[in-house]
Specification:
Number of domains: 2
Distance between the termini: 93 Å
Order of helices and strands: HHHEEEE
Radius of gyration: 33 Å
Strand content: 15-25%
Protein name: Hydrolase
Helix content: 40-55%
Structural class: alpha+beta
Largest sheet: 4 strands, antiparallel
Keywords: Membrane, Transmembrane, Transmembrane helix
Oligomer: single chain
Number of helices: 3
Organism: Flavobacterium reichenbachii
Length: about 170
């Protein structure tokens, strides 16, 4: 009886070891598969976001080599304007007009009510065009501007078209 009890306990211990081994080996395999699926999903998401960002930045001076070359006049004896430095200067100069008591004149809108129109966001599309978002706190609009940089590095703006959304 003692031998059969020992035999049963020995068999039970072997079965417990086999089941434990199978459980942990499958758990590791399951964890690896889940990691691979998650990694693949994250890579696909990153690729999708990167593609969307590239599409969104298609119309921008930073990614338009032809527009960047417009500022390189070194072949004709002129000077080179670095677009990396030009973008913040143009943006800052345009936003400086927000300090005007009647509002930013390059919104193309006269002051309506007590609040003045100011430009909130600016995107430089190429060597000539800027699109900007403006508001007076109650009404919102967008404006398409032309900008010019002369030989003395003076920057001027011209309103091409403006749109004020209805409330």
């Amino acid at each position: 009886m003692k031998k059969s009890l020992m035999l049963y306990l020995f068999i039970l211990a072997i079965l417990m070891n086999v089941f434990t081994y199978m459980f942990y080996s499958r758990e590791v395999k399951f964890g690896e598969e889940r990691y691979e699926k998650t990694t693949k999903k994250l890579r696909d998401s990153i690729n999708l976001v990167t593609a969307k960002l590239a599409d969104a930045d298609y119309f921008s001076l930073e990614h338009n080599e032809n527009a960047q070359n417009y500022f390189d006049n070194s072949a004709s004896g002129g000077k080179v304007i670095l677009f990396e430095k030009l973008i913040p200067v143009v943006t800052e100069k345009l936003l400086d007009f927000n300090a005007n008591p009647k509002g930013n004149p390059y919104t193309g809108q006269d002051q309506i009510g007590p609040n003045k129109f100011i430009i909130n966001k600016v995107k430089i599309l190429n060597h000539r065009w800027i699109i900007a978002d403006y508001s007076n706190g109650e009404m919102w609009g967008e404006v398409l501007l032309k900008f010019f940089v002369d030989n003395d590095d003076n920057i001027t703006f011209e309103v091409n078209q403006t749109w004020l959304y209805q409330k």
